[in-house]
Design goal:
Number of strands: 4
Helix content: 55-70%
Number of domains: 1
Structural class: mainly alpha
Strand content: under 5%
CATH architecture: Orthogonal Bundle
CATH class: Mainly Alpha
Strand order of the largest sheet: 1-2
CATH superfamily: Ammonium transporter AmtB like domains
Length: about 375
């Protein structure tokens, strides 16, 4: 089968949209930290994109999508993009070339470690960060991507059946749990109680959230890897979930604090985008609105709770909004297959049918958390005053 020009054009555009998300995240995080750390936070995300681009081309893509070794890791057949040619159609989606698929997955590999930066913002040296990014991309992200997205991965469709349309597991759970490990091992900032917690640059926060919203269309709709009805559906539900979460976050702020905030609206939008990601290829528009509304309410409550704990997750990378990947992952099982409205009976059945954690969640969680702790203990920590 020959390469499809329409599919190639769409995935190329989607790749560019997802690339925009990494610097957008820099602005989003930069606006939330103290003024003296704004530029440093933005530069961290910029540097992460550059470093991961090289790691992904040299060996990361081969480990994630090379021929499988018993479903756990790819071999080194595609190191330095060996056997990845411009004209070679991608095996599982022949409408595009494998080189384009490499570029698309590179954008996911780049933004995932950038998400973790917010957990230890304002207290890590640049050199330590770069070392961590290389190690984490190699030993955490690449294996997990292989487990879930490789055709022969042990957690994927042919394995335990884990379904992740656009990265709720590979991106958000790995980043979220690694962020938790980072916050615990690196430790809190000195004089944390005396540090001003308000955002230093609200326009940067809003700009970052807006660009993330824009780029997320490529993140979710591009994951269809075709210019088809599935991509259009993912596009629509992504927007609706983000909008619903923004509104529900505003409503919660009004109820609990008397008025909404600009920063809260921006965070609410990102919450909705995270929640819909794993389910974006399976749910209806009505279901996406419900997912977004619930995610906004729950994340607002968790955000309020987090500030009362001793966990110094500086920008809420674990507690809010990354922890809501699980809701999106389960939601598609309830509201897809032409189910046009949320059904509390089915939610109850689903909840009761899984009294113990699913295997993929335990494996991913343990892998991310333990390796992140190892990396953190070897890093040169810098807690700022």
């Amino acid at each position: 089968m020959s390469v499809n020009p329409g599919d190639t054009a769409w995935v190329t555009i989607a790749t560019a949209l997802v690339m925009l998300m990494t610097p957008a995240l820099g602005f989003f995080y930069g606006g939330l930290v103290r003024r003296k750390n704004i530029a440093y936070t933005i530069v961290q995300c910029f540097a992460i994109f550059a470093v991961v681009s090289l790691v992904w081309a040299l060996w990361g893509y081969s480990l994630a999508f090379g021929p499988s070794n018993n479903g756990y890791i790819g071999n080194l057949d595609k190191v330095l993009l060996n056997n990845v040619r411009v004209e070679t159609p991608f095996a599982t989606q022949p409408g595009i070339t494998e080189l384009l698929y490499f570029a698309f997955e590179l954008m996911f590999a780049a933004i995932t470690p950038a998400l973790i930066v917010g957990a230890f913002a304002e207290r890590i040296k640049f050199r330590s960060l770069l070392i961590f990014i290389v190690l984490w991309s190699t030993f955490v992200y690449a294996p997990i991507a292989h487990w879930v997205w490789s055709p022969n991965g042990w957690l994927g469709i042919k394995g335990l059946g884990a379904i992740d349309f656009a990265g709720g597991t590979v991106v958000h759970v790995s980043a979220g749990l690694s962020a938790l490990a980072a916050a615990i091992v690196v430790g809190p900032r000195m004089n944390r109680e005396k540090i001003e917690s308000k955002p230093s640059n609200v326009p940067f926060v809003i700009l970052g959230a807006a660009l993330l919203w824009f780029g997320w269309f490529g993140f979710n709709a591009g994951s269809a890897l075709q210019a088809n009805a599935l991509a259009a559906s993912a596009f629509v539900v992504t927007n609706l979930s983000a909008a619903a979460a923004t509104v529900s976050w505003m409503a919660m702020d009004t109820l609990m604090k008397g008025k909404p905030s600009a920063t809260g609206m921006a965070i609410g939008a990102v919450v909705g985008l995270v929640a819909i990601t794993p389910a974006s290829g399976y749910v209806t528009p009505t279901s996406a609105i419900i997912i977004g509304l619930i995610a906004g309410v729950l994340s607002n409550l968790v955000s309020t709770w987090r500030v009362r704990t001793r966990l110094d997750d500086t920008l809420g990378c674990f507690c809010m909004p990354r922890s809501w990947w699980n809701m999106g992952l389960n939601s598609y099982r309830i509201v897809c297959n032409n189910c046009s409205e949320f059904c509390w009976r089915e939610w109850t059945i689903l909840w009761k049918s899984e009294p113990t954690p699913r295997p993929e969640r335990g494996a991913l969680g343990g892998h991310c958390f333990c390796l992140r702790c190892v990396f953190c203990t070897s890093e040169n920590r810098q807690r700022v005053l």
